[in-house]
Amino acid sequence: MGLRQALEKLNAAVDDLVTLEVITYTGQVKHVIQNDSKGNPAINWDSLTQSALPKTVNGVTTEAVIKLVAATQIKFDGDTKLFQTDEQDIPRLQELLDVHRKSVETSLAARKAVVDFFADTLKEIVSKT
């Protein structure tokens, strides 16, 4: 892989690296699993998160009653936004908040691994020139 290719890959990945978002919902969802274009079962994330109103896609109606438990947004420069519900009547609230926290940690580690990969690749390319 040449320097140009590495930079192109880095540029393509920058959009995903600039902002990290983790959003945790809880609630009841019916019919969110639909067949994708290849006929394989897949979660229709748009239908799940757009609204609680029933929505029909490809003849399947998705009904969702969901609550936002927590949301985290972390910019590449470290700026962070955090939302955590103050509703105490959510079943398993502490467990969901723990899962959210662990998801943020895992996502940060994954982002660091991608950045390290590109940094190591660039170092290797530069050392060969």
From TrEMBL:
It comes from the Bacteria. This is Uncharacterized protein. The lineage of its organism: Bacteria, Pseudomonadati, Myxococcota, Myxococcia, Myxococcales.
